[in-house]
Design brief:
It is a single chain. This protein is mostly beta strands. 15% of the residues lie in helices and 55% in strands. The longest helix has 25 residues. The radius of gyration is 22 Å and the shape is elongated.
Length: 278
Amino acid sequence: MRYNFLFLIAFAIVNFSSAEIFAQEENSDTVEVYLIDSFVPPENPNKFILSFFTSKPVKSKLLLKGKSFSVSENFSENHKAEIDISKIKFDSPNVYFYVEVENETGKNFISEKFDFLIPSELIFTSDKNYFVNCLFGGLFFLTPSFGYAIVDDKNNFMITKELSLFSYHLKGFNYPTGYLALEFSHIPKATIKNYLRLGYKHIFEIPAIEFVSPGLNYTTNLLGYNGVSPELTFGLFRFYEMFTVYARGRYNYKVGDISSEFTEFSVGLYSSFFTLHF
């Protein structure tokens, strides 16, 4: 079973990497947008700073809350603008936007969805509603994932809490390219009840669902169990703007001890909002 699961992880990495390369070759006219900065400076909350570069010289516009703002009126690969947002009404601290570009042949492309945070004074909702939104966001963030682990041929209920520590971006898409996470799992009725994991997860954004993410973790119970746990995660759909519902399968084993092997399946919420980005 171990080798089947490892083969599945390797197949996913090779398959989705090849799919990305193939897609790039098939769409040679496509313009990639690489986000550099998108923020509202604290000293001037009515100004939105946007900078990005593109894979080809293009003209560009910002699409924000149903409005269009010019960024580069001449063909360029480097784009930067300061947008006045004082007349735009916002109802959430998380604001989504797109970049529209036009290449030299006159063809238009729209980027993936990006987001940025705005100060609370720009949110046109009551303090009560804003407090409720923050409260629900915090509750969802603290919610663990639930699932079951097949240990010694028995199904065991389990809970896991994953904390994304560091995320890094190589492309201007909705999710980071990969992230480092710390996890704690508790299996109440298993012989070994508690596990601590530190692992890396790589994210491939794909059509139909949000993403596929193969990963590899170092697993320990701090009492002699030290092993590895390859995993495969499917990001299914977004929830409450900053969260994604995921389903995950994982295989755990202690090197040199076949009896320690077990499989687990879980469903939970992923967010890169509460993490350090690079």
